[in-house]
Amino acid sequence: MDQPKKHQPVKLIxxxxxxxxxxxxxxxxxxxxxxxxIDFQSEALxxxxxxxxxxxxxxxxxxxxxxxxxxxSPADLPKIKTYTNSIEKKLSVGRSRSVNIDPGxxxxxxxxxxxxxxxxxxxxxNQGIYSEVTLFYEDQSYKPWEWTYPDYKSGEYIAIFNRIRxxxxxxxxxxxxxxxxxx
Length: 183
Description:
Layout: E1 11-18, H1 21-35, E2 38-41, E3 45-46, H2 54-57, E4 62-68, H3 77-90, E5 99-106, E6 110-115, E7 123-126, E8 129-138, E9 141-144, H4 150-153, H5 155-180
Antiparallel strand pairs: 1-4, 1-5, 2-4, 3-4, 5-6, 6-8, 7-8, 8-9
């Protein structure tokens, strides 16, 4: 019988959807103060895969991704999602959000996103938060599932997550080396 083991730390990533760059900058600054230095930031990409957010945010939306240098426990995802929801509310203008913040994490095998919505492929975590494995890693790249959002299936997004995974792989290698050396 296998004994439960503590999961190795994972890489916190956050996706943003916004119209005005200032809204992204404000949200990023709040997150950086809470979760430590940012070690990756994508370019602003046109968000054209759905019109779902246009009623609230307007047209000509953009998407960015960031990752943080400090690794987290995967068990922290519900707490992080409720925190990002509070940031969205804080930065709202009237009843409309100025930024949508989607936290998740990646490890060497998968990309996991947090959600407040249940569905057949999502697992309840805690605090009203669900998770889904959005991408899996195989043959030296992340790959989508049938339920993966169309934008996350794009080559641009997968290239971003592969780059972040490379950063993470280096961190895990250094962490294991430090543990072997007793540091």
